[in-house]
Amino acid sequence: MIASFDAAPSYTKFTPVDEEDNINNIRLGESDTKKPNGSANNIPSNNSSKDQSNEYNLPITSSITLSPGSDSFTSSDGTGTSIQSNSSVSALCFEPSGSRLVAGHRDGTLRYYAFNGMKPALATTSSKTLYAPFRIVDSYNDPLDSTGRHVVTALNVSSSGGQWIIGTTSSQPRVVDREGRTTLYHFMKGDVYVTDSSKNKGHTASVTGVAFHPLGQEICWSCSYDGSVRQWDVSGRGKTQFQKLVSQKVISKCKNEKGQRTQIVSNLSVHPNGRKIVVGTSCGSIQIWSCFGSSVSTRPLGAVYSAHGGTKPVTFVTFIGDGSKIASRSDSDDTVRIWNVEKMEKDGGGSFSRKRSGGDGGHSPSLLLATCRGLPALNESANCAFSPDGTVVCAGSSVNPREPNCCGKLKFYRLPEEPKNGKPIKEAKKEKKKETAILDPIVELDVAPNASVLVVQWHPKLNQIAVGTSDGLIHVLFDQTLSSKGALIPSSRSVRPSDGLSDLLRTRAPTGSAAFLAGSNANIQTPNALPLFREEARATRKVKEEVRKDPEKTKLPQPPVTGGIKTGTGAGGNISFAQSDRTPEKNFSSTTK
Predict the structure, then answer these.
(1) Which of 42, 107, 129, 156 could cysteine-pair with 87, CB 3.0–4.6 Å?
(2) Angle of CA points 533, 539, 542, to nearest 5°
(3) Is the pLDDT of residue 569 over 60?
(4) Who's near 293: CB < 8 A, 6+ residues apart?
(5) Rounded to whole angstroms, how far apart are CA atoms 383 and 372?
């Protein structure tokens, strides 16, 4: 490298520095399998080959980090309030095709990431490669909702990927288009003085869960703190009132094991065939309800009370890919529990049990299949996810950020194999004597230093895992051979490292030159460029038609006239309608004689 232009040149061979791994220290947890003496193995970088130690064939050998976006993002309420760029991730959802990822944050924003158009950029505080969102949508952009900004609590996409339903801490979820710019449906707010939920037209408390029909985009569901699960018709034929959609029907009136009304329905998940819904409640129960019929269901198809012991609330539930199992999680304990749907519907749907089960619930091993331990959850947004084949479940652990050198982990658990039909009688008798499997993690990943792992999504087609943390970052884990598309596309685009010689030449470049502008990240201004090469968007006919169809932009009033412009006989914005004293004969010369 040239130290100075005056000194004799001396060159050294340049060796590029490898990028820091986004996730470090992969460790194998305690299990019945072999343990490598507590040693830690670093995850390979994006351009490395497959890790030989990945014996469980998990898509965790490579990763990219998605940043929350610009630090100068401000609110749209006119006050210019800056929004935190490191706010916690509260919801994550892939598009069905896997081309996009949408994240909801606790600052009330939605951040859109497109894997096909991502461009890498180096972080300002470290040498990590980050990928920014291409769009940030503020939740406070609804002209019909004047209740202010709300935390995004739930997020789901239709089967076609053209609509998104958003649940917030307000009582009114809404449906937006694929780009997030236009609100397609505003949902009605219920009357807080009406105690019967079936007589109400909407929710009366914060929304905790939303979901589209897995096989269509005309029906969606939502649950709330008011204890009801509602169905909405978003096909365009639903009943509206005051330009807002009215609830089509109430799916359930959840009750506890004593038959008392449940105050909070904390989460919901739809069966893959779309015929039933599972909900988790604040009373500690898991209930399965049917979606058929126009009347309100009074009894669930199946229910489990004291699912996590006592009255610990169930904050998350989800179906496995084939709908045969349910995974539940509570923010009051450190476990994820796996339940048998068939056994639950057979034993728990007849009537409400009047006998309170004590301790851990006393559930039979045929009902409670497995318990995954070692997963502390300090946030109600914590969830879990099944692998595409349903043999592995993963979940994140929460940490206390005040503790020094703490790190949020992502843990993987291998579920026990189900007994196959046609086994000998002796083996069947042995299986009946088995107890509920207590599982330890087979793999642990240190994902978020000084932060908690909250939201996890495992895409079945891409075979990639998106992890949302409490510091606002999103890590997408994948494997070069086991995964397809998705994060593989932007990971192939790397930031060109700068060497010392280029930095020295850039500092000596004249002001205003191309090298100077490239170093300062400034744009070259070309005011006389042809329209084809101008950076500003052209007002084409297609753009004008889209703006004309936008109900918000076309209803904007014309701004008032300001300044010294004369209108009528006044100045500024004062318009005078006084008639002139001049007559038409004086104003215009007659052409006839």
Answers:
(1) 107
(2) 115
(3) no
(4) none
(5) 13
